Amino acid sequence: MIKEFVKAALAEDVGRGDLYALVEESVPTKADIIAKCDGVFAGATYINALAKEENLEVIWGKKDGETFVKGDVIAIINGSSHDVLKTERTLLDLALHASSIATLTRKYADIIAPYGVKLLDTRKTRPMLRVFEKYATRCGGATNHRMGLDDSLMIKDTHLKTIENLSEYIAKARKVIPFTAKIEVEAETLEIAKMAFEAQADIVMCDNMTPEQVKEVVEYRDANHPYILIEASGNISLKTIESYAKTGVDAISSGSLIHQANWIDLSMKIS
Question: What sequence ranges are listed for the domain Quinolinate phosphoribosyl transferase N-terminal (predicted)?
Answer without folding.
Answer: 22-99
